[in-house]
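[job 4471] stage=fold_predict status=RUNNING
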Amino acid sequence: MNELRPDSDGGGREIVVRPDYRLPKTLLTLAILLSWVFGGFAVIDDFIARGTHHIPTFAWSIILMWLGASLVLALSLLWILFGVQRVLIRSDGLTLTRKIGPASIGKAEAFALAHIQNMKIEEREYKLRGKTTVKYAITFDYLGKNRLLLDHLSAHRAESLLSGPLHRFASD
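[job 4471] inference complete, writing structure tokens
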């Protein structure tokens, strides 16, 4: 879902894009996370039952890797449920931020309008279990590099964004 609204600070427009997919990917990620966590807890419970002084050093590294993978799966689930990509269009540039709820993910990326060229829609193929899914991304050239603005869009959503609020950057 897209949301276009005036910037709260004034002087710009804001595009807020949430991922197209919700229910199928949410259920799949939740099922994987739950089975991963409960399976890991069973192994950890077995280690604890033996006593912590009998746990070999490599087992501790496996437990740490399990915790890391659990964190990645949990963040993926949070992104699916609450993630948004926010593009702020002002007179001097574009600012891209990614958020999960109120928390920003990574640094905000700012792009000067004078250096943005050749904004276009790119088709991207994603494979899962041998099945190919086509999604679209909005990319542009910035200081000699191809940069990604928004990704995992439907064809309709990408076209509406490029012909709407981002039309002045589009290549002909």
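[job 4471] summary: The radius of gyration is 21 Å.
[job 4471] exit 0
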